Amino acid sequence: MRKRQTTIVDDMALSQLRVDSSLEDHNLKPNDWIRLLRNYLRMTQAELAQRAKITQANLVAIESGKVDPRVGTLQRIYQGLSCHLSVEPRPQKPLEELLRGRARAIALQRLKKTMGTMALEEQAPEKEIFKKLLEKRTEDILRDPREKLWRKEHGR
Fold first, then answer.
1. For a tag site, which of 27, 61, 77, 104 has the least CB within 10 Å?
2. 103 with 142: CB under 8 angstroms?
3. Higher model confidence: residue 95 or residue 49?
4. Contact partners, residue 44, CB within 8 Å, separation at least 6
């Protein structure tokens, strides 16, 4: 199976992802937002449930956090609140950093195997040479689109 190459449109979409720098900025959960918006709009649970085409009991369970609603249900609730629902990923750190870290971990794992054998033969390179080798292997892995960075044997 051939891997699909990213397009300019894909690159533009990825560049718009913002790193989630603080969990404090996003500490409200969907049930908190629903309750907050509903109260602000002076809407009862019965009124919102009717507008969202769900039962009031279901809305009560969602608002109390007892039920984790599906995206479709959240969409209907937010539509009932005259809002749009936006679901987008928020990377915990820049994607480039994440990708480079995975490639570096694989390169390090591979180099350690090679260096272990060389150390037994007392041929291990100096620290600076090892660092340069590690960076070169990392770059090689990043350039090769066939490299699998997330295999189970690579660890987490």
1. 27
2. yes
3. 49
4. 38
Q: State the Cα–Cα distance between residues 94 and 130, nearest whole angstrom.
A: 26
Percent of the chain with pLDDT over 70: 79
Q: At what angle do helices 56-63 and 71-80 cross, to 10 degrees?
A: 100
pTM for this model (two decimals): 0.62
Long-range contacts of 73-78 (CB under 8 A, 24+ apart): 74/30, 76/52, 77/34, 77/48, 77/52, 78/34
Contacts with 58 (C-beta within 8 Å, 6 or more apart), sequence order: 49, 67, 73
For the ranges 35-39, 118-122, 136-140, the lowest mean pLDDT is seen at 118-122
Angle at which helix 127-143 crosses helix 95-120, to 10 degrees, equals 130
Tokens representing residue 26 in the block: 């996003």
Tokens representing residue 15 in the block:
């560049």
Inter-residue contact 92 to 123 (CB < 8 Å): no
pLDDT band at 1 (very low <50, low <70, confident <90, very high): very low
What span, in angstroms and rounded, lies between the C-alpha atoms of 58 and 78? Answer: 14
